[in-house]
Amino acid sequence: MTDLRIVRAEGVAMGDAAKAKAPAEADAAVRVQTAEAANERRAAVAA
């Protein structure tokens, strides 16, 4: 692996409201990070 990205579900110990919201926010962060392949820009330059 050459490109690692970490997404955290923060606030899970901050009460029920934050605990319920954390997975949705983490999911959104994952979708932003994976919208394009990690090496997509480098592959385009190499082509």
Note poorly predicted spans: none
H and E order: HH
Separation of the first and last Cα atoms: 21 Å
Output the radius of gyration. 15 Å
Structural class call reads mainly alpha
Strand fraction equals: under 5%
Number of strands: 0
Q: How many helices?
A: 2
The domain tally reads 1
Percent in helix = 40-55%
Main beta-sheet annotation: none
Note down, in words, how this protein is organized.
It is a single chain. The chain has helices at 16-33, 40-46. The chain is mostly helical and 47 residues long.
Write the layout of secondary structure elements.
Layout: H1 16-33, H2 40-46
Keywords:
single chain; 47 residues; 2 helices
What would you say about this model in short?
The chain is mostly helical and 47 residues long. The chain is built from two helices and no strands. Helix content is 53%, strand content 0%.
